[in-house]
């Protein structure tokens, strides 16, 4: 069964597309050929593979080497022989019949054919991700199956040709053999010259985990996580394996097992991620015992999340088992840490899983950097890092412009430039350390690139990104000039011109920018040297020189970073006997597992040097989810601190924490001063001069 699961089919897609391309070429070049049937050929194929085995994960290796999970039995050569013939009859024959009937009905309904062609024309190439978007063709195939059912299996093909009857007077006549198909039905194909879809398309295979992520990592400091799956076809197991391998990026050390293996052994000291499917309203084979266990209504005080896989064509039972598991665990006392995710095999199955998976939280790094002897800094100064572009992106750019890594380039310029000029430098070094490859493309550059597009549809699509879609489709997704060149192949750009429009690689403030710097720092090893310098931050975003002045710090997630320095300084002053004012931290994150530096803060809390008020958005907090909720609850205390000359600091996401905390302070000031919010906003602006300081990151 795993050989025909969604993940397996997805991985087969490049080979399928290659075969389809070859078929199309044959249609163009040959009139038609006869083939033998295939008993002896099947035996020869199996014998040849057994004599010369390989590691290719194709269907033949799976049926030769596959073992039944419970009995570990393997198929005999005779059985394999019949399986191969079954595939030909049950899949190729029925698919052939379906496509033949489809061609017939399309020719009998020209308007439908035109709509089908128009739908395909919207896509420059047919990839596995495009299939779920071909809604009209999907409806055509299903309607064909309703009118002339052969078997519930079909494939989709790009309509490269105009098709027509050989005999326009032909009426449908059914031939029945092992399957049903039109008898005597012949078509003629003529290439559609105006289409720009290449036959040798570069099919994008399913995303694979980079090998570097599979390297062993130190797990002693990672938080534990359990990932449990239920799977017949192998897709949910594949999801579970993917999540397990990526867990260290999110500060977790994950173990993976079947749901049945976890009966009566569900840990309560770690998050549990459950990934499972429904099969015609029944649990998977390795989930049946787990479902029976839940039906016995055990007490489960666990933290969990569920992702379900299914197909929406099973309307009455869609997501039945994942929903059942989710509800039963909640009823048994479990705490849901994320809303149930749902993957539809008929839609963006894998994209839905990636959005469930991304909710784990972004990667966080703690780095300690030894500065050169004699280098000094003040609390909350920046450390600016001269980073380099990821090697993977550099090689993609080199490939795009047909350059090798050792290509030498001599740059001549009549004006000042950040490039080394007048002597050869390797293209690799220039792309790695001189220019910013990931900078989002500007609106002006979009218009300029659109003017270079030779394909009209690509040109129109690119121009549309210059409007309201720019922020969502370009800025939020950080689409670079290079990404545009990949996405719009007809937008040709010479390498010298590409190099000319790239900005220089900037110094990135540590912890302030997610992109080149964080990727660069994330790949450093202990003992590595980096190019960096101390930079003075916003003069207002420093602790007050007078240690007796109270400070109120508000942060979410990694926004705690600067305030750790604030608190460390006050603790040192406190231990030395200096008088310090109240030092209060309002901190928000997803759960107590995400509470950064909690051990340090608890130690300082016991010293009496700091007060910590925390809130967790994924846990029950009596209706409070975010730091602004805590601030509003403590508004009378905040007002008193304001009257006692306290300084207020905020650090975190600009478009989330920044907006909400500012709005909360405006409400507090309005209530305290008995004024409207416009007047309160003006008061806050005056405070921002020296008493209300912010440091936000994108």
Q: How would you characterize the overall build of this protein?
A:
With 698 residues, the chain is an alpha/beta fold. Among the domains are: 142 residues, no CATH class; 122 residues, 3-Layer(aba) Sandwich (Rossmann fold); 160 residues, 3-Layer(aba) Sandwich (Rossmann fold). It is 41% helix and 14% strand. It is built from 26 helices and 20 strands. The strands form six sheets. Strands 5, 6, 7, 8, 9 and 10 form a six-stranded parallel β-sheet that branches. Strands 18-17-16-19-20 form a five-stranded parallel β-sheet, sandwiched between helices. It has a three-stranded antiparallel β-sheet with strand order 14-11-15, with no helix packed on it. Helix 13 crosses helix 14 and helix 15 packs antiparallel against helix 16. It is globular, with a radius of gyration of 31 Å. It starts with 5 loop residues before the first helix and ends with a strand. The relative contact order is 0.06. About 7% of the residues have low confidence. GO terms for molecular function: flavin adenine dinucleotide binding; FMN binding; heme binding; iron ion binding; monooxygenase activity; NADPH-hemoprotein reductase activity; oxidoreductase activity, acting on paired donors, with incorporation or reduction of molecular oxygen. This is Flavodoxin-like domain-containing protein. InterPro entries: CysJ-like_FAD-binding, Cyt_P450, Cyt_P450_sf, Flavdoxin-like, Flavodoxin/NO_synth, Flavoprot_Pyr_Nucl_cyt_Rdtase, Flavoprotein-like_sf, FNR_nucleotide-bd.
């Amino acid at each position: 069964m795993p050989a025909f699961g969604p993940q397996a089919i997805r991985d087969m897609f490049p080979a399928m597309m290659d075969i389809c391309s070859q078929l199309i070429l044959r249609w163009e070049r040959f009139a038609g050929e006869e083939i033998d049937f295939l008993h002896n050929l099947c035996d020869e194929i199996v014998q040849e593979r057994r004599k010369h085995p390989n590691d290719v994960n194709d269907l033949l290796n799976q049926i030769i080497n596959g073992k039944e999970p419970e009995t570990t039995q393997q198929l005999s050569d005779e059985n394999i022989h019949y399986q191969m013939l079954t595939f030909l009859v049950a899949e190729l024959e029925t698919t052939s019949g379906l496509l033949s009937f489809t061609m017939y009905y399309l020719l009998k309904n020209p308007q439908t054919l035109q709509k089908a062609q128009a739908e395909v024309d919207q896509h420059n190439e047919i990839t596995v991700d495009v299939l779920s978007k071909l809604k009209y063709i999907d409806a055509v195939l299903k309607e064909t199956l309703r009118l002339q059912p052969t078997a519930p299996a079909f494939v989709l093909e790009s309509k490269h040709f105009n098709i027509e009857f050989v005999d326009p007077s032909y009426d449908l006549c059914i031939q029945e053999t092992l399957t049903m198909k039109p008898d005597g039905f012949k078509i003629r194909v003529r290439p559609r010259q105006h289409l720009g879809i290449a036959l040798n398309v570069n099919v994008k295979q399913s995303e694979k985990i980079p090998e570097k992520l599979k390297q062993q990592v130190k797990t002693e400091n990672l938080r534990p996580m359990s990932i449990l799956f239920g799977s017949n076809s192998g897709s949910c197991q594949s999801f579970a394996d993917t999540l397990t391998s990526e867990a260290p990026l999110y500060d977790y050390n994950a173990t993976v097992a079947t749901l049945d293996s976890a009966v009566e052994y569900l840990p309560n000291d770690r998050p549990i991620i459950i990934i499972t499917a429904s099969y015609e309203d029944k649990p998977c084979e390795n989930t049946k015992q787990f479902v029976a266990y839940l039906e016995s209504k055990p007490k489960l005080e666990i933290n969990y999340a569920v992702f379900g896989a299914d197909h929406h064509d099973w309307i009455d039972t869609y997501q039945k088992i994942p929903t059942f598991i989710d509800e039963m665990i909640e009823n048994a006392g479990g705490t849901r840490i994320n809303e149930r995710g749902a993957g539809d095999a008929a839609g963006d199955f894998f994209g839905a899983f990636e959005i469930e998976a991304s909710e784990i939280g972004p990667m966080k790094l703690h780095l300690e950097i030894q500065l050169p002897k004699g280098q000094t800094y003040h609390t909350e100064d920046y450390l600016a890092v001269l980073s380099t572009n990821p090697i993977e992106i550099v090689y993609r750019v080199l490939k795009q412009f047909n350059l090798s890594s050792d290509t030498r380039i001599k740059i001549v310029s009549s004006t000042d430039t950040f490039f080394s000029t007048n002597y050869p430098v390797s293209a690799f070094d220039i792309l790695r350390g001189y220019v910013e490859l990931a900078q989002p493309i500007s609106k002006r550059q979009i218009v300029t690139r659109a003017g270079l597009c030779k394909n009209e549809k690509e040109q129109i699509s690119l121009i549309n990104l210059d409007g309201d879609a720019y922020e969502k489709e370009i800025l939020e997704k950080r689409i670079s000039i290079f990404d545009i060149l990949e996405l719009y192949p007809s937008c040709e750009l010479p390498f010298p011109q590409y190099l000319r429009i790239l900005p220089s690689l900037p110094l990135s403030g540590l912890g302030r920018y997610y992109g080149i710097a964080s990727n660069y720092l994330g790949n450093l090893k202990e003992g590595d040297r980096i190019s960096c310098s101390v930079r003075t931050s916003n003069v207002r975003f420093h602790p007050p020189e007078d240690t007796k002045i109270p400070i109120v710090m508000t942060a979410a997630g990694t926004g705690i970073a600067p305030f750790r320095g604030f608190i460390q300084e006050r603790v040192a002053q406190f231990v030395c006997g200096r008088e310090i004012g109240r030092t209060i931290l309002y901190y928000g994150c997803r759960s107590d597992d995400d509470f950064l530096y909690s051990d340090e803060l608890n130690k300082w809390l016991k010293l009496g040097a700091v007060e910590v008020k925390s809130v967790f958005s994924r846990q029950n907090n009596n209706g409070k989810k975010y730091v602004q909720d805590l601030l509003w609850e403590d508004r009378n205390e905040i007002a008193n601190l304001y009257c006692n000359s306290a300084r207020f600091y905020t650090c975190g996401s600009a478009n989330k924490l920044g907006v909400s905390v500012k709005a909360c302070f405006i409400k507090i000031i309005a209530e305290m001063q008995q004024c409207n919010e416009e007047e309160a906003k003006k008061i806050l602006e005056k405070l921002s001069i020296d008493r209300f300081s912010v440091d936000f990151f994108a």
